[in-house]
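Might I ask for a little of your time on a matter of protein folding? The record follows directly beneath this note:
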Amino acid sequence: MSDTHTGGCQCGAVRYRLSGSIPPAYACHCGECKKQSASAFSMSIPMAYEVLTVTGTAKVFETTAHSGKRKYNYFCGDCGTRLWHSGTNPPSAITLKVGTLDHSEYIAPVGHLWVSKKQAGIMLDPETDQHQTQPDNVSAWRNNLGQ
């Protein structure tokens, strides 16, 4: 498998490339993630924004996370695809949306947040790290995924 990974929005107006291995992914089953993904959950990969080479310009809007902290949501202004989230604007540490990778079919989540809000009929691998809500220190949990 290549050490270069590409991705972007549905219309191609915003594209990115990253080199190296993909960090472990996690799934979030909270109501906000279900809404932003228009699906049963959202899968994300925590990483530093600086590892991405981005072409095109993502738009951003600000929301308030369950923790009360600001969350910046980056998306394509043309097609609306959600690309990544960050606690800062401009972004630094981000959670890249797995579905925006051109080839994400090999990525399985190693952890799950907010399983208390899980959609009916979704079965989780019992070997994954699962939290009914979320750990007290989500950033530390993300940084230790897969270890």
Notes: The chain has one domain: 4-142. The mean pLDDT is 91. Helices lie at 31-37, 138-143. Residues 4-142 form a domain with the glutathione-dependent formaldehyde- activating enzyme (gfa) fold (CATH 3.90.1590.10).
